[in-house]
Amino acid sequence: VSEASLSKSQSKDLAIKALELPPICSDVRQKQRISIDTLPPEVKAPFPSEPVIPLRTKTIKEFQEDMERATTSGDWRDVRDFYLTTFDSFLEINAAFKREANAPFNTIEDSGVNSKFLNAVYDALLCTPQDIQKSVLKGIINSLLREWKGPRTKDDLRAYFILVQNPQYSSTSTYVIYAHLLRQIAGLSEADHHFLVHWFKKLSPRRFRQLVERFLHFISTRLLPAPPDELPPLTRCSWWIPAATKVLALFNAANSISTPPIMSFTDFYNITLDHIDIMEQYRTWQSHGNSNKFSFCQFPFILSTVVKKAIIQRDSEQQMISMARQSLVNKVSRRQRVDMNLLFLNIKVRRAQLLSDSLDELSRKRADLKKKLKVTFVGEAGLDMGGLTKEWFLLLVRQIFHIDYGMFTYLKDSRCHWFSSWKCDNYSEFQLVGTLMGLAVYNSIALDIHFPPYCYKKLLTPPIVPCDQNTPIGMATATLGDLQQVMPDLAHGLGELLCYEGNVEEDFYLTFQVFQEELGVVRSYNLKPGGDKIPVNKQNRKEYVQLYAGFLLNKSIYKQFAAFYRGFHSVCASDALMLLRPEEVEMLVCGSPELDMSTLQRAAQYEGYSKADLTVRCFWDVVLDFPLELQKKLLHFATGSDRVPVGGLADLNFKIAKIDVSTDWLPISHTCFNQICLPPYKSRKELKQKLTIAISNAEGFGLE
């Protein structure tokens, strides 16, 4: 039992008291906000004045001295009195921790809390005797019971801000009280939440992280079955998880508005949700949206990329089944012979004409895009069980993004591709590239594509294709930070313009006009009407930078990207896209960036070999010593793709099988099953030589 835990009988007493706490709902608060002007004259009375906060003068030094004396002497009376008084009511909480007792502190910038003193008091709390810890919890219960009625003041918000940081909530014995506190915070108005978000943002990174982890642990514990004597039955506290998730959303909002973010967005993922029936949550969300019926999909920040990928896969599978069934029904209803090929999107291509054949096939078979993809290379005997599809994507992407093809420009400084701004009459090829990327996500294939993160932000603007054809698409707000991802040198120069202390107009001699080279011809464009005649100066330079970034990232490539956007969404049209961040779309398209062969080794399965066999030990010695380039080639050789799937290499179901042939043979692979077959090589040198030859010449499919 942790120091913060209470005995079972004490816990039960507190739980009974806390369960009596009344619910907070929107009705209650609305009723409290009746204007005095709407009341009849006979019931009008002056509102009572704000209560005066009592003056408490204890300092950090005095408190720490009290703690030292109590620890040495065993006499805890002064410390007990302090904790008993401090947590007795919202008023006393403000008296103890507000920097100036009766100052308003009613701005989002300053909570008015003496954070150093608060941290010292909370850090010491878990070192005090159990009766003091219990008295604090009793005081919190009384505070919550007393304060739940009436409109909230800034002092009430301050009390909630202070109480939610209490470290005692790490113990499950305090969860009933914690849940009621979270329920009251979740039930506050939007304006009150706005204040709390900005106050949470000012917490130290360490304490911010501790609170986020505490919320996630609380949610996980309540999701899993609990012993009956530890937590109330789930049927009696179904509101616990929604309340905690709503408060966690405030911390996620605080993290989002911090520059840089306090934590990575992935630290808000609750991995426990990877193991529940998420499709039930998804269907609830689809049916009820963001209404009062709770679903984790209302709060997508808590869902990992693994969960979101699973949702998209299941959604895709349902659409595939639906399309295949419709094709089957149409054939049967016309009494036509049923060909099983009609259940698939069948792509037949010649390797020598890969790009033109592929684009032609995709153009002709638009109606079949939502069927399961099957690829055939003309003149090759390989049957597509997944490996040919991965090979097709790999080769096609390599050709499309080649500099000679001209659709995309490779930017060396940012090491990414961007859309060429050349103008043409037909942008259908950009649409087909978008379709190709959509097919990859739809069929769970990771691509070796290097777009900047801003591209995926544009793909989600908006996440659902608008019905009105005139609604702009892909026009995401462009900032200097976004431009930095694509053209870092230019962004650096514009940043210096913004910081320049001298005479901007005379020294830079710029106007609201930009110049672009298109197919060897330099063209000029005005950033605003008459821009070539408007000089850039200190007053308007920020507008100039915003318009410049917007022009380069949006306006100059609008038609190209709009076609690309429509192509992607023609395959991936799904409500599930609304759950994704741009970074998560990138991971779905490109796979995980981390190539950790140690993970693959731990997850590997064996057929005919065991992990202790000499050949297997030599294999892993060689692979772990390979440079990154050869490791990627090995992955491509064994799986048909050199990309790591979402969830990591552990999700590959990678298998090493034994083939009883001469050791003169090279290793072979079955990419459809992520399997590599090794002859029983007897030395590390021999295995390395044969494996290197095999993985370096692994293009094409054939049958012996």
UniProtKB/TrEMBL annotation:
Spell out the coiled coil positions from the record. Answer: none
Do you know which Pfam families this protein is assigned to? HECT (PF00632)
Family annotation (CDD domains): HECTc
Q: Which reaction does it catalyse?
A: S-ubiquitinyl-[E2 ubiquitin-conjugating enzyme]-L-cysteine + [acceptor protein]-L-lysine = [E2 ubiquitin-conjugating enzyme]-L-cysteine + N(6)-ubiquitinyl-[acceptor protein]-L-lysine
Which keywords does the record carry? Transferase, Ubl conjugation pathway
Q: What processes in GO biological process is this protein linked to?
A: protein polyubiquitination
Annotated EC: 2.3.2.26
HECT domain mapped to chain residues: 365-704
GO molecular function per UniProt: ubiquitin protein ligase activity
Q: Which Gene3D superfamilies match?
A: Hect, E3 ligase catalytic domain, Hect, E3 ligase catalytic domains
Entry annotation: catalytic residues? 672
What InterPro entries does the annotation carry? E3A/B/C-like, HECT_dom, Hect_E3_ubiquitin_ligase
Q: Which PANTHER family match?
A: HECT-TYPE E3 UBIQUITIN TRANSFERASE (PTHR45700:SF9), UBIQUITIN-PROTEIN LIGASE E3C (PTHR45700)
Q: What is this protein called?
A: HECT-type E3 ubiquitin transferase
Which organism is the protein's source? Oncorhynchus mykiss
